[in-house]
């Protein structure tokens, strides 16, 4: 298949996949094209859809073969409109024991949709207004006190909000 047609087919498939995904109330990404510095944060602001329904909150990670760890530690902070802050340290599995990256994707870039809130207990927004999610990596080498300054292999970090079905 000629290169031009192949590129068009890939682009068309991306649009079709994006168009079929109508569940998201909020879905946004921050790009880290080379490395994710330990002091860089991915910040997402959104308005609470309502205070009646339950929602699932997800952290989306896009990584490539430069990611050389089997897990990922994140510090996730949820800021409420009234000033309340909830901060969690989260750990996610990113690779099989064989080293093969988890996630979906046809190329060396894999996407992982990771639970943030709503997995065990339904999440309901307590108040109307603007919320903020702040994500920062907290990766460390085994036996080392200081964190990894530049985390390679994470290309994008996203936040997604979906209604519970």
SSE ordering: HEEEEEEEEEE
Mean pLDDT value: 88
CATH class wording: Mainly Beta
Low-confidence stretches at least 5 residues in length (pLDDT < 50)?
A: 7-12
Strand order of the largest sheet: 1-10-4-7
* Class from helix and strand fractions: mainly beta
Termini Cα gap:
41 Å
Approximate helicity band = 10-25%
**Gyration radius, to the nearest Å?**
17 Å
CATH architecture verdict = Sandwich
Keywords: Lipoprotein, Signal
InterPro entries: Motility-assoc_lipoprot_GldH (IPR020018)
Pfam family, one: GldH_lipo
Protein name: Gliding motility lipoprotein GldH
Describe the structure.
With 165 residues, the protein is mainly beta. It has one domain (25-163): Jelly Rolls, CATH 2.60.120. Helix content is 11%, strand content 43%. The protein has one helix and ten strands; from the N terminus they run H-E-E-E-E-E-E-E-E-E-E. Strands 1-10-4-7 form a four-stranded antiparallel beta sheet, with no helix packed on it. It has a four-stranded antiparallel beta sheet with strand order 3-8-5-6, with no helix packed on it. It has a two-stranded antiparallel sheet with strand order 2-9. A hairpin with a 5-residue loop joins strand 5 (71-79) and strand 6 (85-93). The longest helix is centred in the first third of the chain and has 18 residues, at 3-20.
Short description:
The protein has 165 residues and is mainly β. The protein has one helix spanning 3-20, and strands at residues 26-31, 35-37, 42-47, 55-63, 71-79, 85-93, 110-117, 130-137, 150-152, 154-163.
């Amino acid at each position: 298949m000629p290169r031009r047609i192949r590129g068009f087919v890939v682009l068309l498939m991306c649009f079709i996949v994006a168009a079929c995904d109508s569940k998201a109330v909020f879905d946004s990404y921050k790009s880290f094209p080379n490395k994710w510095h330990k002091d860089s944060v991915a910040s997402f602001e959104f308005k609470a859809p309502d205070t009646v329904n339950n929602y699932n909150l997800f952290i989306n990670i896009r990584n490539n073969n430069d990611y050389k760890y089997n897990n990922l530690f994140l510090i996730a902070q949820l800021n409420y409109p009234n000033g309340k802050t909830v901060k969690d340290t989260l750990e996610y599995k990113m690779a099989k024991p064989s080293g093969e990256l988890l996630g979906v994707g046809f190329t060396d870039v894999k996407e992982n949709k990771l639970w943030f809130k709503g997995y065990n207990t339904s999440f309901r927004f307590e108040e109307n207004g603007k919320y903020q999610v702040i994500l920062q990596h907290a990766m460390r080498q085994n036996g080392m006190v200081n964190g990894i300054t530049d985390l390679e292999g994470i290309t994008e970090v996203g936040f997604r909000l979906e209604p519970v079905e």
